[in-house]
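Now for a chain:

_____
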Amino acid sequence: MTILLNNITGNRDAWLKEKEKRIGSSEIATIAGLNPFCSPLELWAKKTGKVKSNSEPNARMVLGTLFEDDVAEYFTHVTGIKTQHVNKLYQHDKFDFAIASPDYVTVEDAPALLEIKTTGYQGDWTETTCPDYVLCQLQWQLGITGYEHGYAVGLVGGNPDKFFYPHFEFNADVFEQLLELAKEFMRAVETETPPEAGPNDGKLLQQLFNKPVKDKPLKTDSQALYKLCQQYEKEKAELKAQQEKLKPLQTAVKETENKIKQMIAGHDTVEVFNYKINYSQTTVPEAVRKAYVRESFKLTNLTE
């Protein structure tokens, strides 16, 4: 491995410049389609300059960075394994587009990397598992730095009872697959060939292509477009069929909900055995439309 920057915090502009032209651990998770916060098309649009890349971290990112030190310290408290902040940007010896800036490394005979996350949603965090995008990031960092193992460290909702640090060995096969995806993506950037759009790319497509041109209908013999139209028609029909099947169940659920509301009339919170019922009504004042009453109903199983 090669060290591109020795002090990331003291060289933020240089760090951002390197990130613009290379692929880091969060970006490889995006390219692999695992990042819940960014799509491959969005990343491509930023790399090619089609849309402006906002280098300023949002509030979630800022808080996550601020909490990293505390989470690393708590990891040491729980495991007895000391850690140290890395603060370096590494580059793969063979593929210069591959970079990584690990959060922390353990101080022991066989040091391990720490990929630290703070989140409000537990999801796949357990004693032995973590979300796929986190594991993808960790494997990318291990492959670039040469470390043989690492921990995915997750603190859920600031709750010490939901503190997880599953351990993972470096997987060379997975890293090779990620490298191939990264090479393909870099070629797409260089040739300005966009990846396929995902389910959440609607607004991005509006930015990329602006408004459709209002002219005569475009006639095309594109087989790819024709197949997509057939696929869309089929999926829409399947969706409509599933929605029709759900209607009786939706009606039954609403009927039961209303019966519960009827029985607890006059109370906003009711507990019955292992269930807790919250029900409220809020009058929304008239603004641009007629005033209405907004309801809130929630049934909680206290044993889960």
Notes: The chain has two domains: 2-190, 264-304. Residues 264-304 form one domain.
